[in-house]
Amino acid sequence: MEDQTIPVTVLSGTLGAGKTTTLNHLLCESGDRELAVLVNDMGEVNVDADLVAESSDISADEEELIELSNGCICCELRGDLLDAIGGLTRDQEFDAIIVESTGVAEPLPVAQTLTLGFDQSDLDPTEFYEETGIEPLEGCHLDTTVTVVDAHQFNEAMQSDEILDDDGTKKHLGDLLVEQVEFCDVLLLNKCDLVDEATLAEIEATLETLQPRAEVVRTTHGRVDPDDVIDTGRFDFEEASRSAGWMQELQEPHESAEEEHGVTSFVFEARRPFHPERFADLLDAFPETVVRSKGHFWLAGREEMALMLNVAGRSIRVAPAGNWIATHPPEEREEQFEAHPELEESWDDEWGDRGTRLVVIGTEMDHESVRNHLELCLLTDEEMDADWAAFDDRFPTFEEPEAVEEGEHDRQEEIGIAN
Ligand SMILES: Nc1nc2c(ncn2[C@@H]2O[C@H](COP(=O)(O)OP(=O)(O)OP(=O)(O)O)[C@@H](O)[C@H]2O)c(=O)[nH]1
């Protein structure tokens, strides 16, 4: 059923991608639609809000332009974001609300705040309300999440070593870029005027592989048809959380050799562990043709815990991925078998569920060579019989593996040995 409440669109995108330009275009082209906008800047002064006010007929003194400064709406300003939207829906008659995030904001926590705040999901929001003191909002719904991608900077950003600081949380530019691409309904490939057709087609193919569910729209100076990004009805939290290309690839792996503009992928699987020193060496010099890799792996000497590899451009992170089921008490193991029969089928008599499953997505990537590199990191027959604890292991040590959930970036540690 169509939601009759006010649709909210969230614009994300790295610094300078063209979010403000797109917002201005939407304000100019909104026609009969009354738009309210909410602009988030990290600094004390909201430069973007001033720019929006300057170049459109909307004014910061009026109710329809709200600034949220000195913080980030994906972190400490989550409550302020909901308060501001609550104020807009209570006091004024608007047809749609647009939220412009800062260039370092992660879209998932923003969407989570909005879906919980609007009580739009099946998740239990009680804890969230208690933590934030927020009342559930009525009268609006998260409708479309849009990521603006700078076509001119895309390849450079993916190869960049630049580290961004989002209020203490450090992350690579490529990592943030991939996160923004993987979690959205519409991708605006902006600054198309600065890039040739072949490069555009290649970036488009990468974007479609990273996020197969999103609509990709090419734009110049953010000139998008407002109907493509406002009141589209495209957002669905559960679907958005599951739709990243790497996740789909892990669920239904297929070696995609039929390349589209050189973008291909494969799943690497192994039932013996990586040698910690050789795998660390490989991550230190990971093939540049790999754009994205994600999945869990087994490191010799870490028989309690699975580790998660997260490669996005030049960013390489390793985080705990929970204890192997083989370490669980037998009754819990039985429960897992009932819930996931395939687990029992692939169970190893000696090692249980321990193993490696990584999706690897790349541009002009030599599958054989990347596969070979990974295979050479696996323990040899001789090493399988050696004392694994004696191997040189410079991966970080992690505590409390069970408590960590994928997506909780603040607990993920920069690997330190890569880059
Ligand atoms: N050539 C070209 N320039 C563009 C295009 N879109 C935006 N720009 C320019 O790129 C610069 C950054 O654009 P903004 O809209 O401010 O980017 P933003 O994403 O809001 O940036 P932050 O708020 O700093 O994160 C401005 O100088 C724009 O005029 C485009 O399609 N082509």
Written overview of the protein:
- The protein is an alpha/beta fold.
- It folds into two domains: 6-243, P-loop containing nucleotide triphosphate hydrolases (Rossmann fold, 3-Layer(aba) Sandwich); 247-414, 2-Layer Sandwich (Hypothetical Protein Yjia, Chain: A,domain 2), CATH 3.30.1220.
- It is built from 16 helices and 16 strands.
- The chain has helices at 19-28, 47-54, 78-91, 107-117, 126-132, 154-159, 173-182, 197-210, 226-229, 237-242, 245-251, 276-284, 330-339, 341-345, 367-377, 381-384, and strands at 6-12, 35-40, 65-68, 96-100, 140-150, 163-166, 169-172, 186-190, 215-218, 256-260, 263-270, 290-297, 305-312, 315-323, 356-363, 413-414.
- It has a seven-stranded parallel sheet, with helices on both faces. Strands 10-11-15-12-13-14-16 form a seven-stranded antiparallel sheet, sandwiched between helices.
- Strand 13 (305-312) and strand 14 form a beta hairpin.
- Helix 3 (78-91) crosses helix 4 and helix 12 runs antiparallel to helix 15 (367-377).
- The protein is globular.
- The N and C termini lie far apart (49 Å).
- The model is unreliable at 401-419 (pLDDT under 50).
- It binds guanosine-5'-triphosphate.
- The site of guanosine-5'-triphosphate has 17 residues, from helix 1.
- Belongs to the SIMIBI class G3E GTPase family. ZNG1 subfamily.
